[in-house]
Amino acid sequence: MEPEERWKTAAIAMASDVKVQMLGDSGEKATPYVVDRNTVQSIISDWPAMSKKSAVLTMEQYGRPNEAVPSRLIWYSNGPWKRTIVYRDEIAHDFPQPHTDVIEQFIDYKVPPEKFSELAKFDGSVIVERTKGEVSSRCDMEAANILSLNLMHEIVTGKLNAEKAREIYCEVTSAYMMNRPAPYAERLQFDVPVGGTVDTDVVMIGNAMVHQTVQKVKDSVNPDEGNNGGVYH
């Protein structure tokens, strides 16, 4: 990228940030329509068994997805979830027993950075998005995601450490699979925030850099004015 394009791109990025923050318009937008059932069936027809099973179960629970491409199906605002994605491509995962991760479900949630390491120790398929203010869990079934996020909350609030959470995960999973009461795998046990969880971080490149970016853009657009020391309005 040429230097002038770098400055132009930086200026556009800064303007976009201001606009988004002023309008409170940060993050993904939900697709308002649903995909035709025949289209969905065509897409998942040659998916691996676990991915196809997850897609079918999710449609039975929440109806047709809002988006569908060859590699994934996406639902927005389904049940307790901000977003649900069922993937064609499986990810092997051996905790707490061998399975493949094919369904990822998201909630708004703000995790303090000092808790990130403990969550990583607990479960590598619990994923924190600090900037977007989201947490997701990716596993083989919705119940496992509910369980993971309930234990995530317990870790963040200081009630559990990673080691104890892993023990409870195994206990609850066993109970759920044996059709015994397992409330931690049946519904989220905490109030899920609705927005207000984003973390835009702090500006490290100060006003001088911002002014220089604006001036460079101005010089590239109006070189004569820039050379004469004009003021950018």
Task: Report on this structure.
The structure is a single chain. By secondary structure, the protein is α+β, with helices and mostly antiparallel strands. The chain is 43% helix and 17% strand. The protein has helices at residues 3-23, 37-44, 49-62, 116-122, 142-156, 162-177, 207-221, 223-227; strands spanning 67-69, 72-76, 83-93, 99-108, 126-129, 134-139. Strands 1-2-3-4-6-5 form a six-stranded antiparallel β-sheet. β3 and β4 (99-108) form a beta hairpin. The relative contact order is 0.11.
Note the beta-strand portion: 15-25%
Task: Tell me the span between the first and last alpha carbons.
Answer: 26 Å
Overall form: globular
Task: Give the helices and strands as they follow along the chain.
Answer: HHHEEEEHEEHHHH
Q: Give the rounded overall mean pLDDT.
A: 89
Q: How do the strands of the widest beta sheet line up side by side?
A: 1-2-3-4-6-5
Q: Please tally the helical runs, counting DSSP H or I stretches of 4 or more residues.
A: 8
Total E-strand runs: 6
Helical fraction: 40-55%
Q: What Rg, in angstroms, do the CA atoms define? A: 23 Å
Query: What structural class do you assign from the helix and strand content?
Result: alpha+beta
Largest sheet: 6 strands, antiparallel
Instruction: Point out poorly predicted stretches.
Output: 226-233
